[in-house]
Amino acid sequence: MPVEMISEPANATLRKNIHVSDSAAKAAVAIARKISNAIKQHQLIGKTFRLGLATGATPVPLYKELIKLYQQGDVNFKNVHTYNLDEYDEISFDNPNSYHGFMRENLFDHINIPLEQTHFPSGDDPAAYDREIASVGGLDLLILGIGSNGHIAFNEPGSEKDSPSRLIELDASTIADNKQYFPDGDMPTRAITMGLKTILDTKTLVLMAWGDSKASIIAESLSCTPSADLPASFLQDHPNTLYFLDHGSASKLS
After folding, report:
1. Is 44 exposed, middle or buried, given 0-12, 13-18 or 19+ CB atoms closer than 10 A?
2. Cross-sheet strand order for the sheet of 86-88
3. Are 161 and 223 in contact (CB under 8 A)?
4. Which terminus of the chain is less hemmed in, N or C, by CB atoms within 10 Å?
5. Rounded to the nearest 5 degrees, what angle is found at the Cα of 131, between the Cα atoms of 126 and 134?
């Protein structure tokens, strides 16, 4: 259900686009159904659906729901091309901590998407990712999480609204948040990220956040003046950003 803000967002549309669920699992059902319906609408008119994907703990409930819908015969991924937000630098694709590995484990190996239709940014020529996505008319829908410092993808604080896909040094707070996934301590300090320009050129953005730990950054990103200091705040200016939250992450909004 929509929530009322303590601090009003920059425009009234944002308030209508905030959806709060009892749990991440319940929110994931709604988002998966939205994606499934969009895929089927594209299939009916013979069009490819171009879906941007995130990694980390936040989207895992969504990927479980998409797998469930596929197993039930409710969605077919053969007309889908996916575009991941980011990948660590200097890490092999078959490394279990790579985002290639994450996506295969949590989604791709459980649905019928051809792997040649899955795309990731490359450190060899990051700007080629922008050109590739622009050449197909941009993304139809993009899944986003939000970092504790307000980053989206790996666009760390200081990233401008028109920033391209690029190699970036990870912020200390991002490394601290993600080092749990590297128990051997060999955490990369650089990554290739989709740029904010390509993200903001997407037709529909879906930002998900779960838990009390995301409450402060969600509230700030929705109420502050959009700025490179908090990259997620630029989503305020997008005409179709949908926020899916649980009660914990929405707790400082009402």
Report:
1. exposed
2. 86-88, 190-193, 166-169
3. no
4. N
5. 135
Burial of 210 by CB count in 10 Å (0-12 exposed, 13-18 middle, 19+ buried)?
buried
Instruction: Dump pLDDT digits (tens) for 181-194.
Output: 887 778 899 999 99
Q: What is the pLDDT of residues 198-228, one digit of tens each?
A: 999 999 999 999 999 999 999 999 999 999 9
As a whole number, mean pLDDT of residues 222-251 equals: 96
Number of H helices, E strands in the chain: 8, 10
Q: What is the predicted pLDDT for the residue at 14?
A: 75
| Catalytic residue numbers, as ranges | 86, 149, 151, 156
Report which DSSP code applies to 9.
P
Q: In whole angstroms, what is the distance from residue 24 CA to residue 30 CA?
A: 10
Residue 254's pLDDT band, with cuts at 50, 70 and 90, is low
Q: Which domains are seen in the chain, by residue range?
A: 12-246 (3.40.50.1360)
* Residues 195, 172 contacting (CB under 8 angstroms): no
Tokens for 175, please give them.
Answer: 């490394």
Per DSSP (E only), the strands in 14-79 are 18-21, 49-53
Tokens (6 digits) for 197:
């320009």
In whole angstroms, give the CA distance from residue 70 to residue 63.
11
Cα separation, 85 vs 195, in Å, equals 9
d(CA 166, CA 190): 10
| pLDDT confidence of residue 154 | 97
Q: Which residue is listed with tokens 């950003």?
A: 241
C-alpha dist (Å) from residue 232 to 12, 155, 176, 179, 247: 17, 9, 19, 22, 20
